[in-house]
Design a protein that fits this description.
alpha/beta; 11 helices; binds pyridoxal-5'-phosphate; pyridoxal phosphate
């Protein structure tokens, strides 16, 4: 993205903002389409629910992975058709179901939810086609098979067949599995997809599900830092073609991949400005507007790193709050050739409000603009923007013609 665009926007609005670059989103969508022609895609709205982002997603014929009833409504507002909105979340209330049963495909997350959906369908005198989330009997990265708050355990399915069949007002028409995000090894994803397909065949043959779709969930990772290698999406796509061919006889239904960060993360930049600069006992401090309360990731990364005991690369991610200690880059948008070591902080009344300690940056002046990369996913909505009642950053959507669309809060 052109630096001039960012500078002009800061001049005009004089407050921190997120900016999302449509060209990058379009490019990511293109990669998915080219490499996975057999699949449909759902955009995980929670990743970035900005209305202009969702509109672009809808324009590109991508459906929605909605994680709340309000995400179902946002999807409808953006023009996504009902059959492409799949509502999957743990802990839906009966009211959530009542308000959405005719607006999307609901994925039940527990046996209790299946019962509730059946009740709602009965009250409306219909038979509703629903999905079910399954906690598959598979360890995606080796190790133990873990319990989960999500879905129903694969091994419990058969013993619940009678119960499921007794629910006369629903018909299970799809399965949803999601075990992990941010996978960069294509073979890990390939083996996982293979396992989900086997599970789907079991669901048809042994459980009698009338399968309209198999939803493989998310997992497509992105290289956040230069240390990481991009997911070899072309190799994954190639292997998936053969895999799917092998299952064609037994499964003839929609194949769905969900994706959030892969589509939007790199499109987003968080932009703030330097309010003050000072030296304390020999250390340089730069204070910016809306640090932690604008973009949460640097402060969380600094906190996690302060507890690290051992190599930073080994710290486990806690998605989507913490991905890695270097999951973004801090840039100063000035022309200075001189470098200096500074600690960049936000203007909150807590020392935890840190962008980065001892960063070596071009010499920073008051008024300079600071841009942080990889801010397009799990950024604005996960940041505590109400803390200390500061002005809330704007969100700016930059379309392919460099027109801007502002969301003000
Ligand atoms: C069920 C499900 N699908 C998809 C996603 C999207 O993940 P990502 O942003 O890593 O693509 C998530 C993220 O939490 C998820 O829980």
């Amino acid at each position: 993205m052109e630096i001039k665009i960012i500078k002009d926007l800061m001049d005009k609005y004089k407050r921190p903002f997120y900016i999302y670059d449509e060209k990058i989103i379009a490019n990511q969508i293109q990669k998915l389409r080219t490499n996975f022609p057999e699949f449909e895609f759902l955009y995980s709205i929670k990743t970035n629910p900005n209305k202009d982002v969702i509109k672009f997603i809808s324009k590109n014929n991508i459906g929605s992975d909605a994680a709340s009833k309000n995400e179902v409504f946002k999807s409808i507002d953006a023009g996504i058709p009902k059959e492409k909105i799949i509502y999957s979340a743990a802990g839906k209330t009966k009211q959530d179901i009542e308000e959405t049963y005719d607006k999307c495909i609901i994925t039940a997350d527990s046996y209790h939810e299946l019962e509730m959906i059946n009740e709602v369908a009965k009250e409306h005198n219909i038979v509703l086609r629903v999905g079910v989330r399954i906690n598959s009997n598979y360890a995606i990265e080796g190790g133990d098979i873990l319990p989960s708050k999500f879905g129903i355990d694969e091994e419990s399915l058969l013993s619940h067949k009678e119960f499921i069949d007794s629910l006369e007002n629903i018909k299970i028409c799809g399965i949803h599995v999601h075990l992990k995000s941010q996978i960069l090894n294509y073979e890990t994803l390939y083996n996982y997809y293979k396992d989900v397909l086997k599970l789907a065949v079991f669901c048809v043959e042994e459980m009698g599900f009338d399968m309209d779709y198999v939803n493989f969930g998310g997992g497509l990772g992105i290289a956040y830092s230069q240390r990481e290698n991009e997911l070899e999406i072309d190799s994954l796509g190639q292997k998936c073609k053969e895999l799917i061919n092998g299952f064609k006889e037994k499964l003839n239904c929609r194949l769905i991949i969900e994706s959030g960060r892969f589509i939007v993360c790199q499109s987003g930049t968080y932009v703030t400005y330097v309010i003050d600069k000072k030296v304390s006992r020999g250390a340089n401090y730069v204070i910016v507007a809306n640090g932690y309360n604008g973009f949460h990731k640097p402060a969380l990364a600094e906190m996690v790193m302060s507890y690290a005991d051992g190599p930073l690369e080994k710290i486990h991610s806690v998605e989507p709050m913490f991905t890695s200690y270097d999951a973004y880059e801090v840039k100063v948008l000035n022309e200075s050739q001189e470098k200096e070591k500074v600690t960049v902080c936000g203007n909150l009344c807590t020392a935890a409000d840190l962008i980065g300690k001892n960063l070596v940056l071009p010499k920073v002046e008051i008024g300079d603009i600071i841009a942080i990369t990889n801010a397009g996913s799990y950024g604005f909505t996960l940041s505590p923007v109400l803390f200390s009642s500061h002005d809330i950053p704007y969100e700016i959507y930059l379309n392919s013609n460099n027109e801007v669309f502002i969301s003000k809060y």
